Amino acid sequence: MKAIMVMYDSLNRHFLPNYGNELTKMPNFRRLGEKCVTFDNSYVGSLPCMPARRELHTGRLNFLHRGWCPLEPFDDSMPEILKKNGIYTHLVSDHQHYWEDGGATYHTRYNSWECSRGQEGDPWKADLKVRAEDHPGSFGPFPKDPIGYNMRRQDCANRRHIKEEKDFPQAKTFSNGLAFLRDNKDCDNWFLQIETFDPHEPFFSPEEYQELYRKDGESATPLDWPPYGPVTEDKAVVSGVRNKYRALLSMCDHYLGQVLDLMDEYRMWDDTMLIVNTDHGFMLGEHLWWAKGIMPLYNEMARTPLFIWDPRCGAEGERRQSLVQNIDLAPTLLDYFQVPVPEDMQGFALKNVIKEDTPVRKYGIFGLFGSMINITDGRYVYMRGPAKKENQPLAEYTLMPTIMRSRMDPKKLKDMKLRQPFSFTKSCPVLEIPSAEE
């Protein structure tokens, strides 16, 4: 048995032809829909990037007790469980957050991994001459906070070393993934995760993909990095940024096609599961919002595209209405490889959903740590905001006091205390760290 996961970041299902968008040119996603089961009610659990990936590993909701974080010592990790049970696991990715303090325990759970550098503010190339103000795609004014400013300066430096399509991190990531498939097509018992940071902002892609969305004589907007906040720009700017996103989606579609081509060539559909998924969506002017995180979790962010081919049942070209979530992917892969699912996993194996749309839950909850909590039955969504503006008391529970790009500030740790174990911490007490609303 073999399995491939192709994972994207910030994939808005409303821009995909599989969910009704006829403007985006994505023939390979259409082809994917003909080969796989398409899920109409797939929802996130915890947002954003690393909380979603923690759920991918652990099959357990993250946002109720922790924000952005690494894997904990007590966490179950699906790739690591597979590895311990004789299933070879390999990760290829350009997702820069794996190489930071807040994500540094994820990629090492696999047997092997390869990283491709240069996405967004990845601290890759040193060019002391560039400034954030030189960034060609950012909205003004430039962020005053050091992190936002330095990310744009760094991305500007990185782009100077991306001159041809083969230089793009996504192209390198898929090249590494395809090499694994060619080298190991005749082997058995492996799981390959091809994970690209695209179409996460900035929406930077080769010119040939941008030309797909350019009318004759029209000059494209240079803007490809929208802010995290309300839309204040006019309709022309919103339309231009959406076309930048569509161009990057067409690039994603191109490389997905290469995976499908190899599966056809090597007849891998007979014994290889394929999962195509994302961590969450992205706001592109809908509801007058850009990006994610601070607005209500509208369906553009919370309701995600998901496609699965399971060779055990052979269902293809069909759609499923059962409510599923990101936390279901770990149990699904463990079940596929006939490995026991740990008791601490809250998700469900989707074998019977894929086969005959048998429901696995009546409702699902999702959200961001310290923010709105949402519940859905797949038809309606109830959103409940914090009871008080201060949103206190609020604490993070962890044994790994790091955040996205750094260790926690000692000032934040001075009032921490040891708390009795939770049911999922394997009898380990954890640090209770007060967290002020930001």
What attributes characterize this protein structure?
single chain, 438 residues, eight-stranded mixed sheet, four-stranded mixed sheet, 21 strands
Structure description:
Helices cover 26% and strands 18% of the residues. The chain has 11 helices and 21 strands. It has helices spanning 27-35, 49-58, 78-84, 146-159, 169-184, 207-210, 235-265, 299-302, 329-336, 351-356, 410-413, and strands at 2-8, 37-39, 42-43, 46-47, 88-93, 112-115, 190-195, 229-230, 272-278, 283-284, 289-291, 303-304, 307-309, 318-320, 324-325, 364-368, 373-376, 381-384, 395-398, 417-419, 430-434. The protein has an 8-stranded mixed sheet with strand order 6-5-7-1-9-13-2-14, sandwiched between helices. Helix 1 crosses helix 7, helix 3 runs parallel beside helix 9 (329-336) and helix 5 (169-184) packs parallel to helix 7. The N and C termini lie far apart (46 Å).
In short:
The protein has 438 residues and is α/β, with parallel strands linked by helices.
SSE topology:
Layout: E1 2-8, H1 27-35, E2 37-39, E3 42-43, E4 46-47, H2 49-58, H3 78-84, E5 88-93, E6 112-115, H4 146-159, H5 169-184, E7 190-195, H6 207-210, E8 229-230, H7 235-265, E9 272-278, E10 283-284, E11 289-291, H8 299-302, E12 303-304, E13 307-309, E14 318-320, E15 324-325, H9 329-336, H10 351-356, E16 364-368, E17 373-376, E18 381-384, E19 395-398, H11 410-413, E20 417-419, E21 430-434
Parallel strand pairs: 1-7, 1-9, 2-14, 3-15, 4-16, 5-6, 5-7
Antiparallel strand pairs: 2-13, 3-12, 8-11, 9-13, 10-11, 16-17, 17-18, 19-21, 20-21
